[in-house]
Amino acid sequence: xxxxxxxxxxxxxxxxxxxxxxxxxxxxxxxxxxxxxxxxxxxxxxxxxxxxxxxxxxxxxxxxxxxxxxxxxxxxxxxxxxxxxxxxxxxxxxxxxxxxxxxxxxxxxxxxxxxxxxxxxxxxxxxxxxxxxxxxxxxxxxxxxxxxxxxxxxxxxxxxxxxxxxxxxxxxxxxxxxxxxxxxxxxxxxxxxxxxxxxxxxxxxxxxxxxxxxxxxxxxxxxxxxxxxxxxxxxxxxxxxxxxxxxxxxxxxx
Amino acid sequence: xxxxxxxxxxxxxxxxxxxxxxxxxxxxxxxxxxxxxxxxxxxxxxxxxxxxxxxxxxxxxxxxxxxxxxxxxxxxxxxxxxxxxxxxxxxxxxxxxxxxxxxxxxxxxxxxxxxxxxxxxxxxxxxxxxxxxxxxxxxxxxxxxxxxxxxxxxxxxxxxxxxxxxxxxxxxxxxxxxxxxxxxxxxxxxxxxxxxxxxxxxxxxxxxxxxxxxxxxxxxxxxxxxxxxxxxxxxxxxxxxxxxxxxxxxxxxxxxxxxxxxxxxxxxxxxxxxxxxxxxxxxxxxxxxxxxxxxxxxxxx
Lengths: 254, 301
Known about the structure:
Helix content of chain A: 25-40%
Shape of chain A: elongated
Largest sheet of chain A: 5 strands, mixed
Strand order of the largest sheet of chain B: 1-2-3-4
Distance between the termini of chain A: 63 Å
Number of helices of chain B: 9
Number of strands of chain A: 7
Largest interface: A-B, 51 and 45 residues
Order of helices and strands of chain A: EEHEEEEEHHHHHHHH
Strand content of chain B: 15-25%
Shape of chain B: elongated
Radius of gyration of chain B: 26 Å
Structural class of chain B: alpha+beta
Strand content of chain A: 5-15%
CATH superfamily of the largest domain in chain A: Alpha-helical ferredoxin
Oligomer: heterodimer
Number of strands of chain B: 7
Number of domains of chain A: 2
Helix content of chain B: 55-70%
Order of helices and strands of chain B: HHHHHHEEEEEEEHHH
Strand order of the largest sheet of chain A: 2-1-5-3-4
């Protein structure tokens, strides 16, 4: 397919710092290749802004191949833009038409404060992980090889599907309640399904949920928006599993 | 309390929402079965069956426990819902300038709070119209029946024929199952004679010994029939409001039924598709059957 060039109008959230009041600014950008990714388009815009002696737009990005979980952006009312199963770096400008106006906003969540422009602080996810998203390993030097424990293929597959979560925060961003339950559900599940993780499963779910609540995320109302917008297609079955695990923990732990 | 996470945490709030919601679904089924008697039986027989049923519902100990559980479930469901909604609004202080939620979620699922509030408004009017009258003020008339009978007053000496004149006898239905004569009235003279008196709104007392001789049934059937009857000028509004409220209930259940199972952790690839289908059927059939009852009453009365 031959590449095309389109002219677009962008409405982008600009905010100097976490305390400043932000606003949507309008930019026009011409000759955007439809083969470029959304982030490359933003690079092109930033180049234009720098040439015009304006401050470039701050946005998160790293691997640009859909695996690191750094890129975010709420594009035209949807997390990672108008496509499913992709991150913003995998979104291509061929999804847009010549003359389109594109809204670009940061993730909106009380637990994800804005650092600058489109960058948000997602360390709330790190703190949830630190509260229980790990397996305690004896580092005596005689650690058992994980692969020596037989695991049913179906369980391993489910754990792997949950572990595909890259922690980008699209679930929180697209949830009408700003709930982080898909993220936490995935992290709880990826361990709870495996023998190594089962040992600490009860403490893990209680601690991670407590941290999630402390961070100020909303409550799940099962709209299912998160699993549709999740770039890794993580199922809300993981939330149900977390709910089961939590009930078990809450009823048995003093 | 050592298990305070069972009350405080976000997930526990979902359990309470789900458990009370599912309990209220069973209440709906019970209430519906009672209401359906309004259209399946007609005449005095239907009226009597419904009022006897209403009396049973008000006096059976098990049903009493169940009804208090229903009140509690309703309050917990509403209060929990309000708390969740407030927290959820707080979780996103700055709204998106451009949002496209249609792309990833159903309308009902995003509007549970508003749908629930509308149901609460309906419940308030519904309880004021029927429950308040039946349970609190007891301003409901008792189940009575006026029959005109030919009463013998003498004999024609020439022909030997009995001379009769019509008199009106008012009967009250006694909870022991008999129709008790309450008063007789001569329509030609307007004279009437009471055979017992009614105290405490529904208890029958002997006129001379002042001993309780029976108990009456509240005529809830007539209250309902009159409320939705064409002769009542506000009935059409009542019917329309009822039908719209059932539509709202259907929407609420459309998301709520299956959602409750998910909240309780009961999402299994084998059973979830069945739960979803049952939920859809439930959310259509139950509100539909509720809604046709006042419509049928309106058309027939």
